Each structure stands twice: as C-alpha cells, then as structure tokens.
Amino acid sequence: MTDHDHDRTAAPMVDEITDFEVLEIALRELCIEKGIFTAEDHRRFTEFAEQIGPAPAARMVARAWLDPEYKKLVLTDALAASREVGVDWLQPTGFGTPSDFTALHVLEDTPTLHHVIVCTLCSCYPRPILGNSPEWYRTPNYRRRIVRWPRQVLAEFGLYLPEEVEIRVEDSNQKHRFMVMPVRPDDTEGWGEDQLAEIITRDCLIGVALPKAGVTTNVITKTRPAIHPVEH
C-alpha cells in the first residue's frame, strides 16, 4: 500500500456567510447575553423547528374534504382548525415564546380557481403547520416571477392548468400567512382521512402541484444551468 500526501484540494462547502446569517448570529448572541433566552433554549427551539413538517396541514385538508362542518371551521377560523390537528399557533413549542403567531387563511381552490402562495418581500411562510419552507420558495427567482408569470412558473413545476382556470397569487407578509386547500381528486372516492392525507404534499399546500392518487412526494424539478449563447 502506497502512502499518499492527502492535501486538501476541495473547496469548502460554504465560502462565506450571508448578511442575514451575520445578523442572526449577532442577534442570537445579544439575546443570550441579555438573558432573553439561553443557548439551551435556542437549541431546543431549533430542533423543534427543524422537525416540523406538512403532515398537520395535510391532515387538516383531508379532514375538511370529508367533514363539511370542519371545512367551515378551516375556512373561517384556520387557527382553531389547526388546534384540531394538534398545532396550537399560540404556543407551538410548548416551552417558549410563540413563533409565527399571525393570521392564517386557508385558500380554497375550485375547478375554475387555483391559488398559489408566495412572499415577495422575503419568505414568510406558515411554518407552525407546514414546517420550514423549501429552498426554492425563498429564492428571488420564484418570488419575482410567480406574481408576473404564474402560469409559466407553475408549468416549470410540471403543473399545466387550462386557460379557463384563473390563477390567483396570494402574497404573504409578516403577520398574514396562507395555505391552499386543493380540489379533491375525483378518483379518491371511498378513501379515508389517512389515505387522503398521504397525497396532500407540501407542494400542493403551496399551490405548485395538485394532489394525485399514487403521488405522495413533493415535486422535484429539474435544475438546468443557465446558457448564454455566444455570438460567432
């Protein structure tokens, strides 16, 4: 066996941190120094936030599809409906200051109306019930384009809607969050709540996909490098 000089030649995973990350570090360290919360509190909340997923939101929609009375609650008082599926926006962690307490509205799709959510200013998102937002949701590319060319952007996700379907883009903000209640697929008659919840993915709840029987994962879009034609 020959000895090799294992020089590190690979570039680091992250060359530099962003301005937002610098701000987060400075604010976090200041809060710990001032006794607003401890480093242990921060660790516990971070671990809690990372494990939140879209399952409660999917359960909410599935139950609304089956129960007309619950559907009324979802559309009129989404925070109360959230508690019915185990999410209390007033105290989501159970051990600290409420996170993302805000007005939550569920947008009901119809055969002629389709909703999609965005936050054009930053990346406001109903995290207590949907978990952390996907990376593409936070990109300027999505935020700028979905409000101008929603039909074309949805097509890039593989969602092609007929021209007669109106697309309505709802813009979240600091204290106002949205999620989508998609139309129930026709081929799900006789399904129970558990089976329905499986096909209501995060992307369906954002509005960039539709629930389909047999599809239980989020859309994976192909990433293509930008091509700049060269003039000869």
Automatic annotation (TrEMBL):
Binding residues for Fe(3+): 119, 122-124
InterPro entries reported for this sequence: CN_Hdrase_a/SCN_Hdrase_g_sf, CN_Hdrtase_a/SCN_Hdrlase_g, CN_Hdrtase_asu/SCN_Hdrlase_gsu, Thiocyan_Hydrolase_gsu
Record GO terms (molecular function): hydrolase activity; transition metal ion binding
Xref: SUPFAM superfamilies: Nitrile hydratase alpha chain (SSF56209)
Pfam families referenced in this protein's UniProt entry, alphabetically: NHase_alpha
Top-level division of the source organism's lineage: Bacteria
Every Nitrile hydratase alpha/Thiocyanate hydrolase gamma domain range: 19-209
Keywords of the record: Hydrolase, Iron, Metal-binding
Family: Belongs to the nitrile hydratase subunit alpha family.
Protein name: Thiocyanate hydrolase
Species, as recorded: Mycobacterium haemophilum
